Amino acid sequence: MGGTSVGSVERIGAIAERIKDQVNGGFNKIAVVVSAMSGETNRLVDLVRQINPQASAKNYDMAVSAGEQVSAALMAAALERVGIKSRGFLAYQLGLKTDSLHSKARIHSIDTAKISDAWEEGLIPVIAGFQGVTDEMEITTLGRGGSDTSAVALAVALGAGFCEINTDVDGVFTADPRYVEGAHLAELMDFEVALEMASLGSKVLHCRCVELGAKYNMPIVVRNTFTKNDHRRTKIMSFSEEQKLEAPVVSGITLDRNIARVAVSGFGYGSGIISGMFERIAKLGINVDIIVHNRSNDDSPMRIGFTIAKIDTDQSVDCLKSWAKEMELNDLAIEVEDKLAKVSAVGLGMQSHSGVASRTFSVLAEAGIEIHMISTSEIKISMVVEESYADKAAQILHDTFVVPKSN
Ligand code: ASP
Ligand code: MG
Q1: Domains plus CATH for the chain?
Q2: Cβ contacts of residue 210 below 8 Å, gap of 6+?
Q3: Model pLDDT for residues 240-278, shown as the tens digit of each residue
Q4: Residues framing ligand 1 (Cβ under 6 A)
């Protein structure tokens, strides 16, 4: 259950009714994973920042994980109110173990014994998402939006038939309908495409949740919590070879405004320099996305550009500066540009159709949109453009490639 699904007392009550119907319909082995009530995690993050912007990651996690504790208890209480026996669980009570990368921890293992016990007793377990514990029993969190990941991990550990993500949209769309006209619901999606879309900034799913689903072949159904059972939903699963062949060339367009480009220049060619630089950044758990590097044949200084999430900019720049100092790279210059956005087209059919890249470049060029960086994989093409052109670029790509919905 995403944050908006449990956003108010009424909504929690409405979900309890729905779960009651499912239980009465014979589904008694349900495990419910909840997020914090909408806005709650932001409020907690804000409180921590106000108290101490440099609060340690352990204290940060202890504070921001609290929203899920409240939701789990409220949901369990709401179930009791409608006559369904229920119990809330926190990560430490379940043994939901993670590594110790606070605020972006990864799940290592889940002990499902407590959940089986709850089912044995006829209880519906309600689990606080987003949180975990280290071996030392320190509270961790999985990164913003992480309760989806908790849910899929739990479904895998329990050997569930599928994991249903209840959210405030009907499913995964071909593009964000708020910005792209004609964007529509994708009913069926292969893990590979969903994974690209999630990592490229489609806000519906947390990347790690899809990664886990793909790794363990756990189908993920994304649906709107409050629409009736009218089949408007997206099912994410492993496509068969045949389904892959029939997949559209482009299934979706994503837009990520949350990027910054860091350009590092003024260093000469030397073994270990580039690896040293990225090693430092990796140690902070920061994801580097597109990297553009060109080594010229002469001895001119090198230049490397890469993109990261905007939020990681200060930390990356600080770490590069201290690394440069240690390495005595006195001419090293670091520039940051953050008025950029990344627009991408994703589709399995790209594997078997040529010309997607050239078509993309030409339609954007016709519209006068300059491309700053490009990166491709077998099933996606991403371009960094000026932020002010981002919506237009997404619309053009959607109009060009995404098959309009027939009904
Ligand atoms: N409550 C957490 C957040 O807002 C986790 C989640 O909603 O999935 O990021
Ligand atoms: Mg959320």
Answers
A1: 9-242 (3.40.1160.10)
A2: 152, 191, 194, 195, 198, 220, 236
A3: 988 888 888 899 999 999 999 999 998 887 768 889 999
A4: 3, 35-36, 41, 67, 129-130, 144-148
